[in-house]
Write a structure and sequence with these properties.
Layout: H1 7-17, H2 38-56, H3 60-84, E1 104-109, H4 117-125, E2 134-141, H5 145-155, E3 161-165, H6 173-181, E4 188-193, E5 197-198, H7 202-212, E6 217-221, E7 224-226, H8 234-256, E8 268-271, H9 272-278, H10 288-298, E9 302-305, E10 310-312, H11 318-339, H12 343-383, H13 393-416, H14 423-433, H15 435-449
Length: 504
């Protein structure tokens, strides 16, 4: 430890470094560190050669137009089907599973988060789960003195443990999570980020869902929602629409029809034995969540969803949004490259999901900006009465169905989440999508120059008090955003019962 660190921080380091758990991170989990394989390089060269031949014959644009159009129409069909399929039923609290409530390990991923740490720990303390079955670990960096001190001060009453990231891997979130994984004692593990406020009953719902599901269900993804609070900027409203479409419409649909999906970076509940079997997270992948979503498929497991959400705060500055989105796109390209090395191991469902969720997502990000410019070129002369080339019927169909299906997903998602739909934000969504092309340009540059660099998103405590202390009884809601289904009265004790004591 560096000279000048507080005594409480030095005590925390000694206490948490004294008895490390058994090692579990598989050194082979470095798939994203190796880049493209020889076969992938050869296939890429073939595609470039084919594109050059089409360009020379003047047919490249026609092939791309039809290929992209058919891809957009396929994605639109999936979105519309997802809007039509009802969500899973709301959770119904029951008595503890056979054998009692499993031990749960909550891992908090923290780096340079001293300011928001007390808010996160307050949200974890509000979880309604037996305290003698709960282990809470903060995954931190040893030189992040401020965050370590904040954890030590705010987490003592919760029995918070510290796990320090070590090794020569890049300074990424999965590297820190692997350090925490060596100390886990829970049968189930969940990961939360610094800005998260999980629903108080989320752990109970996940534990019951695992008990009722078959052994092949390895992961349960909780929906992430942006807190609908006064004073949100338009960028945050757009983020809220995007999350609603993904977590309340698309992922439940994919889970229902048996298709794999990339996990969210937080609020994924995992069976510990499966996680250890897989070798933990890949520290070289900057979207370890998406990678894990397909890794479990290769191992013969599957993922499902639960209903009780986690509230988050979206970035409010464009620069921060672009940096975060660039990291996501870079990680999705890494994940696509890793798992496309052997599509047979994914099966047809996994391969279809990989192309639809990651491949199409990255391609869509690259197309949004050029499409917006093309529409300006086509529409501006017509708007001032000068005529113009106009839209071909096929192009109009692709554009209309592509955008309308995406907007429909957003509207349905907000309604399912129990929130208020802002029509102004819905109308501005296509302009917001064009920013994704800027983020993709940054992602491509970083993939070439610093593929494992982690663009840190800074977080601040919620200024409007979005942690809403819901009573843990029949008035608790599954939405936490002003609506949602009513839950029946709980037949078990509250998490703050005096008999619920921390593990250890």
């Amino acid at each position: 430890m560096a000279v000048g660190q507080p005594e409480e921080t030095r005590q925390a380091v000694r206490a948490t470094s004294a008895a490390p758990g058994p090692a579990c991170a598989d050194p082979r989990r470095r798939a994203a560190a190796t880049g493209l394989t020889r076969v992938q390089v050869w296939l890429f060269a073939v595609l470039v050669t084919l594109a050059g031949c089409l360009l020379a014959t003047g047919r490249l644009w026609a092939v791309l137009r039809v290929g992209v159009g058919l891809g957009v129409l396929a994605a639109a069909a999936v979105r519309l089907a997802a809007c039509a399929v009802p969500p899973p039923p709301p959770p119904r609290p029951e008595q503890a599973p056979d054998g009692g409530w499993p031990v749960y390990t909550v891992i908090l991923a923290l780096y340079r988060e001293a300011e928001i740490t007390p808010q996160l720990i307050a949200a974890i303390a509000a979880l309604d789960y037996p305290r003698n079955r709960l282990q809470v670990i903060a995954a931190v960096e040893a030189d992040d003195v401020a965050t370590v001190s904040a954890c030590w001060r705010a987490g003592r009453a919760l029995g918070l443990e510290l796990a320090f990231a070590e090794g020569d891997a890049p300074r990424t979130k999965p590297r820190a999570l692997n350090a925490a994984l060596t100390r886990t004692r829970g049968d189930l593990v969940v990961v939360y980020d610094a800005e998260d406020r999980p629903h108080p009953l989320q752990l109970r719902e996940a534990a019951l869902a695992f008990a009722q599901a078959g052994p092949r269900v390895a992961v349960l993804q909780a929906p992430l929602r942006i807190a609908d609070a006064p004073g949100l900027r338009e960028l945050q409203h757009q983020f809220r629409l995007e999350y609603a479409a993904l977590f309340d419409v698309l992922l439940p649909f994919l889970a229902r029809v048996g298709l794999p999906f990339p996990l969210g970076g937080t609020s994924n509940h995992i069976r510990r034995e499966v996680l250890r079997e897989l070798g933990g997270w890949d520290p070289w992948n900057v979207t370890e969540d998406a990678d894990l979503g397909y890794l479990i498929v290769r191992a013969g497991y599957r993922a499902d969803v639960i209903r009780l959400p986690t509230l988050e705060t979206a970035p409010h500055r464009t620069q921060a949004w672009i940096a975060q989105r660039a990291r996501w796109l870079k990680g999705h390209m890494q994940t696509f490259g890793v798992h496309s090395r052997d599509l047979r191991a994914l099966g047809w469902r996994g391969a279809a999901s990989l192309v639809l969720c990651l491949g199409f997502g990255v391609a869509s990000a690259g197309l949004q900006g050029p499409v917006a410019l093309w529409l300006l070129w086509v529409g501006a002369p017509m708007a001032v009465g000068l005529g113009g080339p106009g839209l071909a019927p096929f192009d109009a169909l692709v554009l209309g169905l592509g955008w309308s299906s995406a907007l429909a997903c957003m509207a349905v998602g907000v309604r399912r989440a129990g929130g208020d739909l802002r029509w102004r934000s819905l109308a501005l969504a296509p302009a917001f999508w064009a920013l994704q092309s800027v983020a993709l340009a940054r992602a491509l540059w970083q993939l070439r120059t610093c593929p494992h660099h982690w663009d840190k998103t800074d977080h601040s405590p919620d200024p409007v008090g979005a942690i809403r202390r819901r009573p843990l009884d029949g008035t608790a809601e599954s939405g936490l955003s002003g609506g949602g289904e009513q839950l029946p009265s709980l037949p078990f004790r509250r998490g703050d019962d005096a008999s619920h004591r921390p593990m250890g």
